Amino acid sequence: xTTSTMTTAxxxxxxxxTASGRGRRIGLAxxxxxxxxxxxxxxxxxxxxxxxxGVEGRPAWCPTVPGYxxxxxxxxxxxxxxxxxxxxxxxxxxxxxxxRPGPALGTVALNPGxxxxxxxxxxxxxxxxxxGVLDDxxxxxxxxxxxxxxxxxxxxVTERDYRWAPRAEQREAVADCAEELGxxxxxxxxxxxxxxxxxxxxxxxxxxxxxxxxxxxxxxxPVYADRHPERVEKMVLSGAYxxxxxxxxxxxxxxxxxxxxxxxxxxxxxxxxTAVHDLAAxxxxxxxxxxxxxxxxxxxxxxxxxxxxxxxxxxxxxxxRGIGLHPGGPGLLGALPAALHALAAxxxxxxxxxxxxxxxxxxxxxxxxxxxxxxxxxxxTWDPDAPVAERRRQYRAxxxxxxxxxxxxxxxxxxxxxxxxxxxxxxxxxxxxxxRPQPTDLEHLPDVPVLVLSGDLDTNTPEANSRLSAAQxxxxxxxxxxxxxxxxxxxxxxxxxxxxxxFIRTGDVGDTSCVNRVPPVxxxxxxx
Length: 528
Fold this sequence. Notes:
Blueprint: H1 34-37, E1 49-50, E2 63-64, E3 70-78, E4 88-96, E5 106-111, H2 123-129, E6 137-142, H3 159-164, H4 167-181, H5 190-204, E7 209-214, H6 217-227, E8 232-238, H7 250-267, H8 272-288, E9 291-297, E10 300-306, H9 308-316, H10 331-344, H11 349-361, H12 368-377, H13 388-401, H14 412-416, E11 450-455, H15 463-470, E12 476-481, H16 495-506
Parallel strand pairs: 5-6, 5-7, 7-8, 8-11, 11-12
Antiparallel strand pairs: 1-2, 3-4, 4-6, 9-10
Helix pairs in contact: 5-6, 7-8, 8-10, 10-11
């Protein structure tokens, strides 16, 4: 095991801060492009414009970014390495060139997470968010295979339908998606995308890359670094988790109660012990008597059974996303203590309203790439070569062997079933025609500077996981950003972006005292 040099920035926030707010739903699991489209409060940008067809040397889809030259290309890449009979796939990328005269200091390769988030059509927003870096560095934006300009991969499973379906239906949707993809399912892995990035690097004649991974990108970029260690200059990982992560997401379960405590203590609007007690009471209530929530979806009324696992998903995925994007409002996280307190006292109204809003705002993006990558790659509690019945037995045995205390206020089954990319979601993923799981023993990671950023309210990739991510590297620096969630770059002051930009330029963390000025999350007052 490697050792890491940890640089931790912490703060005790004042209870009178006012900036934070609600962010939109931004994809499944760990991913999050909003960090790129709305991260800098002083940068106002419009959607990227496609270059007109017929411009010599530029594909029609190549974006225009005012003030910057953008080069674009599509590579033909093997569907599956060493299996030429499966054919090729087009993988597209754009390079936003640095603005200052002279050669670039380097090239930053970015992945915004997902799996499945895209970059090319958001090039102008990305350039606005990373404007300071683009003074001297080129920016490589590659749409991962199966997404965006790299051959979008559909299997007719939308985010809304997948996320809000009962767990048994989620597992069936995964199996249906695999059947729809057929042999193509084997082509969609983190290793394949990592090799695509390196193929783009080689075409560009760039000797080494600065890797910048957000959320799932913090899984992908270490895979790249392990496969191509000599091609890595430095790395920034934000909202990170290790390749050998816990598929039952126990660190997230424990973080939920800690996050509730922190927002209550820092805001002064609720009692920390009461909030955690209310959470436990509500999980027990939902385990025995779920809420029925009716929402307007696509012009129709849809009723969702809001069970313990759906509360787990609410707390794990959207609750701590978008913190800081809209300062001044409590957002989902800041509204939860009051809603939980009300339901614990028998009043369903506040939590029902929050859930209804989440259902209505959940996106309709196809989840094919997300499901293919996570079900191919991620670690599981069962043998992927085993039949489904044996997998189910192994999964149940793993739950039974787990310490109930590791799941905080939730039951083991309820928390694990709330993970859209973990637990038993891939139980029905086929044994044949798909890829082998990503190895977790990364033995060739380069000895380069690595910065790991973590929001201390993040329940999706909590600080415990981010520290494990940092421990994968010999020269890592860890920075905890108070009052921020998933991802810390979303905080309202621009502090986290400034830290990462300084690190890209220098390889050094520098002054992190700005984290002490990140304001706490406003919280709806809870009666005492």
